[in-house]
Write a structure and sequence with these properties.
Layout: H1 5-17, H2 39-48, E1 49-59, E2 69-78, E3 85-88, E4 96-101, E5 104-105, E6 109-111, E7 114-117, E8 125-134, E9 142-143, E10 146-148, E11 170-178, E12 183-186, E13 190-195, E14 200-204, E15 217-220, E16 223-229, E17 232-238, H3 243-268, E18 278-282, E19 289-290, E20 296-299, H4 300-303, H5 311-326, E21 334-336, H6 342-360, H7 366-382, H8 406-423, H9 425-438, E22 442-444, H10 446-454, H11 461-468, E23 476-482, E24 485-491, E25 502-510, E26 513-521, E27 525-527, E28 536-539, H12 564-579, H13 586-599, H14 603-620, H15 623-643, H16 647-660, H17 664-675, H18 687-700, H19 705-715, H20 719-728, H21 736-745, H22 755-765, H23 771-774, H24 778-783, H25 785-791, H26 796-805, H27 811-822, H28 829-852
Parallel strand pairs: 1-11, 17-18, 18-20, 21-22
Antiparallel strand pairs: 1-2, 2-8, 3-7, 4-5, 4-8, 6-7, 9-10, 10-15, 11-14, 12-15, 13-14, 16-17, 19-20, 23-24, 24-27, 25-26, 25-28
Helix pairs in contact: 3-5, 3-6, 5-6, 6-8, 7-8, 7-12, 8-9, 9-10, 12-14, 13-14, 13-15, 14-16, 15-16, 17-18, 18-19, 22-26, 25-26, 26-28, 27-28
């Protein structure tokens, strides 16, 4: 019999928040108007508002800096008029030009990011608010000849006055006045296009019901391609100037979307639920993709791959397409009630994407791809002092962006595989179908899904979820042996006595013989076959379990006998043990990785091994050891490239060689490749590859930097890439004063608008070869973090930290982070976690180098 454990746990929380049925919300007149959207305000509005319809008109000028005037109507049904009504608008009061309510001028007030409508102007039942305003710019992503909206999680209110919360779904009717040579895409299909004296007006059909963060449009100088695949019309917008690159990719892009849609319709039993399907490829887009209904946005380079892409790149493209398409059902059709459950839409998108790409890549080991795609990322957070649970509390939506990260994108899919294993694939799928059907075009929470799944298994899923979903961290496993006994012991590193029930495979490796056995872990001590006491054991050999597993370098002696997946699992286990300073010494592991990388034939395993090699080389080896290894490593990677007949493998080796090359001979080889003086068979270099190479050379050959960079800009055909390179020039300068001035310029929000460019620039400033000169930027970078959280998009704070800290290992850099936090005991809790996550490699590197000698 199952206890009602979930209800028992949340009842005290509901009482504390005043959210039980008998609690009466405090009238807004009596409460302070808070910035952001508090959970209490969101719940009060959700209880009173329904049938919301927006009609929006924006006049977008060609000039990037000119104002965008707008007018909109908000129609809705209001349950009662006991309280004034707050609309969200995070702009200055002068952006509001006129407001009328139900046909009369409003005596509204503007306070703490809210347009407050007096209760006396409202009526129970149907209402209409008309607003003339100047749109805010911070989330319109304006560029010289295009713009695009990006409103997740609460940034619609930075552009428009509206109800910006996920459980107030609404329909949108959008009209855009545009320059004559611009085109546009929105949530709804284009209804009419009317030529005007100054340009054109595009009227869109009213959208399906969507939350505010999914309202979107793209407008600008784009090319449009429309195709019908499997009976469904799709439109793609792009700005790619290279016709060969476009033609090389376009068929796959449409076919992968069609395959994802068909798979999801079959799996969910629900036909594609929206009126239209389209997507836009945007240069320097902040994320890989964003799931706007009918108008998905992608980073152009994520889909338009260069010639001879690696297997990792092909899988990444298919995965991001499958991920964003899966969101049409998981997140768009059924949306979380509050952003504390934002992870639910992301986990299902990632989890389904892993299933969707399988049929399109029958030759790929998908269990291996799952392991290398998710485990390093999940462990990179869960091993840290800043680890966060999958599901986090969120008192105000203005902090929702801080919930995103590797835990929801990488750990949550691992958790979901364990959950599917508990129920079985059919019961799991049937539960998801019931969940989607029950909440279609509405909202739901994780406990509601757990309740649906709970009926399909004797396991207490609420108790299971409490550990896996509601708490942070990973279990640590150790081997214990006694005469006639061998036990795998699970320990909670936080000392809370938690247990992570899970299943995995364990391999017993003996000379000439491998024995694989399933392992079900339901307690603190799990008996193993005592006959394996003398064998080398490989835990999580199937990439299904989760935790810090025992591993030793001796197991690498069986490398040639292992399959692809066990090899990758062993690399991960050893790397995690090395970072705990309980496993192999960095130099010993480095030498083994170098040896096996030279002969590895699987691209996914090779990519993982090369990543670990790079991290150890730059952050864990003392300078003397690294300098002693440089020539040998360069030769290994160069020869590995030449020995690989496959272009994708050659590309992996060449990129690794480019990153580590420091000796004059190796850098000269790079220069000759970039200039075209040296050509390498089966290694086609695209314009993007040459741009990347030119920037590495600018750092490695500072006296030639200006000439190399100017020549590359002159040879670049893509105008968007030219703008990016010009932005990056000062970050690549050989002059310290120029780099200092550039870093100072990043303190101005206007210079951080194109976030992907800023992150590239930080990578240049903090290149490992410049660490001694750039460590001075660390403290001011940390001091900017709170402002960046307010002004930037959801991934920017963590990415800012990672780009700043990732390449350091010195005691002084570690002390900068520790002193910063020690001086701020009341620092924002979410930002503290992000900082501890990003600083973890630095803090561990300092300890490891102290242990083994620097």
């Amino acid at each position: 019999m199952k206890t009602d454990s979930l209800a028992a746990r949340i009842a005290p929380i509901l009482i504390a928040l005043g959210l039980t049925a008998c609690a009466r919300p405090q009238p807004v007149e009596e409460a302070r108007i808070e910035p952001g959207i508090s959970q209490a305000l969101a719940q009060q509005r959700a209880a009173k508002l329904s049938d919301i319809r927006y009609t929006l008109h924006l006049a977008i000028p060609a000039e990037q800096e000119a104002d965008i005037p707008g007018d909109m109507s908000v129609e809705f049904t209001l349950k009662d008029t006991e309280q004034p009504l707050q609309l969200d608008f995070r702009e200055s009061a002068d952006h509001l030009r006129a407001v009328s309510v139900n046909g009369r001028d409003s005596q509204y007030r503007f306070e703490s990011e809210h347009l407050v409508i007096p209760a006396r102007e409202l009526r129970a039942g149907a209402n209409r608010i008309d607003i003339r305003f100047i749109a805010g710019n911070s989330s319109l992503n304006r560029n010289p000849d295009y713009l695009y909206t990006l409103f997740v999680p609460d940034r619609a209110r930075t552009a428009l006055p509206l109800f910006d919360q996920p459980d107030l779904k609404a329909t949108w009717k959008l009209r855009l006045d545009l320059p004559a040579d611009w085109t546009a895409m929105g949530n709804g299909a284009i209804d009419t296009v009317t030529e005007t004296a100054g340009g054109k007006t595009v009227q869109f059909q009213r959208s399906d019901p969507i939350p505010s963060y999914l309202f979107a449009f793209v407008a600008g100088e784009f090319q449009s391609v429309t195709r019908t695949v499997d009976g469904r019309e799709m439109t793609m917008l792009h700005r790619e100037p290279d016709p060969e690159r476009l033609q090389r990719n376009i068929d796959a892009i449409f076919e992968l979307h069609a395959a994802a849609l068909k798979w999801l319709e079959d799996y969910t039993g629900i036909p594609y639920p929206f009126a239209k399907f389209g997507f836009a490829l945007i240069p320097a887009f902040q994320y890989g993709g964003m799931e706007h209904v009918g108008a998905i946005d992608y980073r152009a380079d994520s889909l338009l791959l260069d010639e001879a892409p690696t297997e990792t790149e092909l899988l990444a493209r298919a995965t991001v397409i499958a991920h964003e398409t899966a969101h049409m059902w998981f997140g768009d059709l059924v949306t979380m009630r509050w952003f504390d459950d934002v992870w639910t839409k992301e986990v299902f998108a990632n989890f389904m994407a892993a299933k969707i790409v399988n049929p399109s890549f029958p030759e790929v080991n998908h269990a291996l791809n799952f392991l290398v795609s998710h485990y390093p990322g999940a462990y990179s957070v869960d091993r840290t002092a800043g680890a966060n649970p999958i599901r986090q509390q969120l008192p105000n939506l203005n902090e929702a962006g801080q919930l995103y990260g590797a835990i929801i994108y990488d750990k949550a899919p691992i958790m979901m595989r364990q959950l599917e294993a508990i129920l079985g694939e059919d019961a799991f799928r049937d539960g998801l179908r019931e969940y989607l059907e029950n909440h279609a075009f509405g909202n739901a929470s994780w406990p509601e899904l757990i309740a649906v799944l709970d009926r399909r298994t004797p396991t207490d899923l609420a108790a299971w979820s409490e550990v896996w979903v509601n708490t942070a961290g990973r279990p640590e496993f150790t081997l214990a042996s006694a005469p006639g006994q061998l036990t795998l012991e699970q320990r909670d590193p936080a000392g809370k006595g938690r247990l992570w029930p899970q299943r995995m495979d364990v391999m017993a490796l003996a000379p000439g013989h491998i024995d694989t056995a399933p392992l079900r872990i339901d307690s603190a001590a799990t008996p193993l076959d005592p006959n394996n006491a003398g064998a080398d054991l490989l835990f999580n050999a199937d990439g299904f379990g989760y935790g810090l597993f025992p591993a030793s370098l001796a197991t690498l002696g069986h490398w040639s006998e292992l399959g692809e997946l066990p090899r990758a699992a062993l690399l991960v286990n050893l790397y995690e043990q090395m970072l705990e300073a309980t496993g192999p010494a960095p130099m010993a592991y480095f030498e083994q990785l170098e040896q096996f990388a030279a002969s590895e034939q699987n691209q996914l395993v090779l990519d993982l091994a090369l990543y670990y090699l790079n991290r150890i080389y730059w952050t864990l080896l003392p300078d003397t050891q690294r300098n002693a290894q440089a020539k040998r490593l360069e030769d290994t990677l160069w020869q590995g490239m030449l020995a690989s007949p496959e272009p994708g493998m050659r590309k992996l080796f060449f990129e690794a060689f480019s990153n580590v090359a420091v000796t004059p001979a190796a850098v000269q080889q790079l220069l000759e490749v970039w200039s075209g003086e040296r050509e390498i068979d089966n290694l086609p270099l695209s314009e993007r590859n040459r741009i990347q190479l030119s920037q590495l050379l600018a750092i490695k050959l500072p006296q030639q930097a200006d000439a190399i960079l100017q020549q590359q800009i002159a040879q670049t055909r893509n105008p968007d890439e030219v703008r990016r390179q010009q932005f990056l020039l000062p970050s690549l300068s050989p002059e310290q004063s120029v780099r200092d001035a550039f870093f100072e310029s990043l303190k101005d929000e206007r210079n951080r608008q194109t976030e992907s460019w800023v992150l590239d620039a930080l990578g240049n400033l903090h290149n490992p070869l410049r660490r001694q000169q750039s460590e001075r930027y660390l403290l001011p970078s940390l001091e900017l973090l709170q402002e960046i959280q307010v002004t930037g998009d959801i991934f920017f704070p963590k990415n800012w930290l990672t780009a700043s800290l990732a390449n350091y290992s010195s005691a002084s850099a570690a002390k900068t982070v520790e002193d910063f936090l020690a001086a701020r005991p009341d620092y924002n809790a979410q930002l503290r976690m992000k900082l501890l996550q990003a600083a973890d490699p630095l803090l561990r590197a300092r300890k490891i180098r102290e242990k083994y000698g620097d």
